């Protein structure tokens, strides 16, 4: 960013001693207190802080649950029941962890769609965006393995279906499946592998999140206007301006999470997972958790198994190439009339795929899944590249301060509107 934070000056003798040896207080001060942020950030920019809170919540509750969980195919289901019935506040830890996973994905999807709308993936924030995609992949792997751990009917058969997908990969597919299973079918070795990885991956996520925050602090925050910081008037200190917003949003988010935890804790789960795993009885309709449903719909929309798996993984991988697929020189969707329409079409497509992922793979559901899958990939591979060439964006404000004054109706600085700037 064009403005720099004043350095931290310790006052007490103890603080001076620590700062000269391990300047961690200075790092926090420069990164989260006086760090300049664009003054026009809205509440959509608070989901980064919410995600950090949710990650810490998942790690803490997960560690507590791991103390009482037994990673054994014969005992896993009963150990979960033991946590629910006999461990003091075990029910609270489990419901916080299970519903926390869903709310973690709610927050991350809102965070992503905000980035998509305001062009937060464009230069110089490409690495920041790619790290976010990596975090999403790690989250999905962690959530899938965690869903297997209760060892209920949906856990067992979900693990069987998803791990079998790797068998369609030529040459190495069967080897990968055998490694994941630890044998020739989903069983005790599979559960042990998944428990180990489920425990490890959140700490990997935390490490990538630190890189994500670091990558954010190099160019600074994007903003709703999508223009660069030019003067000190364009920014405010992170504290108290963003800390107050972050705290308020986090409190509202936790209140909603608490509603689910205390009043409808099983609403986002599946009833079949309260039945012990039975390899001899297949559930009538095997579905993953709701946050996987759009990708599950893409998988089932392709009639060829290998192409379906490729399409499913490509639907996530294509996000990493977004900074180069979007050819527009304007970041913010607020100044791109055509992009706005295609963005909301894309949002409807994602919701539609989520609905179709929960439906049986038959009849009109499959046809619509294929149509929406085509539109999903067309958004990235066709619409965005063409919009950058054909769309005529609105004129951008001269500065962030000007955009704030214009929005508040307090008057505007003199000067004509700026030309669309480079990303």
From TrEMBL:
Gene3D superfamilies: Cytochrome Bc1 Complex, Chain C. One of its GO terms (biological process) is respiratory electron transport chain. The chain crosses the membrane at residues 20-37, 49-71, 91-116, 128-149, 155-182, 194-215, 248-268, 305-325, 337-359, 365-390. Keywords: Electron transport, Heme, Iron, Membrane, Metal-binding, Respiratory chain, Transmembrane, Transmembrane helix, Transport. Heme b b562 binds at residues 97, 198. A ubiquinone binds at residue 217. Belongs to the cytochrome b family. This is Cytochrome b. It comes from Saliniramus fredricksonii. The lineage of its organism: Bacteria, Pseudomonadati, Pseudomonadota, Alphaproteobacteria, Hyphomicrobiales.
């Amino acid at each position: 960013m064009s403005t720099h934070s004043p350095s931290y000056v310790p006052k007490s003798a103890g603080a001076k001693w620590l700062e000269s040896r391990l300047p961690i207080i200075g790092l926090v001060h420069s990164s989260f207190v006086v760090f300049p942020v664009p003054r026009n950030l809205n509440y959509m920019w608070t989901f980064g802080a919410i995600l950090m809170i949710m990650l810490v919540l998942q790690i803490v509750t997960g560690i507590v649950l791991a103390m009482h969980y037994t990673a054994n195919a014969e005992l896993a289901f009963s150990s979960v029941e033991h946590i629910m019935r006999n461990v003091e506040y075990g029910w609270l830890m489990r419901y916080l962890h299970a519903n926390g996973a869903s709310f973690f994905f709610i927050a991350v999807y809102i965070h992503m769609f905000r980035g998509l709308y305001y062009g937060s993936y464009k230069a110089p924030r490409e690495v920041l965006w790619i790290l976010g995609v990596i975090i999403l992949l790690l989250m999905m792997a962690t959530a899938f393995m965690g869903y297997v751990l209760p060892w209920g009917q949906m856990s067992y058969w979900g693990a069987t279906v998803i791990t079998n997908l790797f068998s369609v990969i030529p040459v190495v597919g069967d080897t990968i499946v055998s490694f994941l299973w630890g044998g020739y079918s989903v069983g005790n070795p599979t559960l042990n592998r998944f428990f180990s990885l489920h425990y490890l991956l959140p700490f990997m996520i935390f490490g990538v999140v630190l890189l994500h925050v670091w990558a954010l602090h190099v160019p600074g925050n994007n903003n709703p206007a999508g223009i660069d910081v030019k003067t000190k008037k364009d920014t405010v200190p992170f504290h108290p301006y963003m800390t107050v917003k972050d705290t308020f949003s986090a409190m509202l988010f936790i209140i909603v999470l608490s509603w689910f935890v205390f009043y409808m804790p099983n609403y986002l789960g599946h009833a079949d997972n309260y039945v012990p795993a039975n390899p001899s009885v297949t559930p009538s309709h095997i579905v993953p958790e709701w946050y996987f449903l759009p990708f599950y719909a893409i998988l089932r929309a392709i009639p060829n198994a290998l192409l379906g798996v490729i399409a499913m993984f490509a639907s996530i991988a294509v996000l990493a190439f977004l900074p180069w697929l979007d050819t527009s020189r304007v970041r913010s969707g607020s100044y791109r009339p055509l992009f706005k329409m295609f963005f909301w079409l894309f949002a409807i497509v994602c919701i539609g795929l989520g609905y179709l992922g929960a439906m049986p793979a038959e009849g009109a559901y499959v046809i619509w899944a294929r149509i929406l899958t085509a539109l999903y990939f067309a958004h990235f591979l066709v619409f965005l590249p063409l919009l950058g060439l054909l769309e005529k964006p609105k004129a951008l404000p001269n500065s962030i301060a000007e955009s704030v004054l214009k929005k508040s109706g307090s008057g505007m600085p003199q000067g004509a509107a700026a030309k669309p700037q480079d990303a």
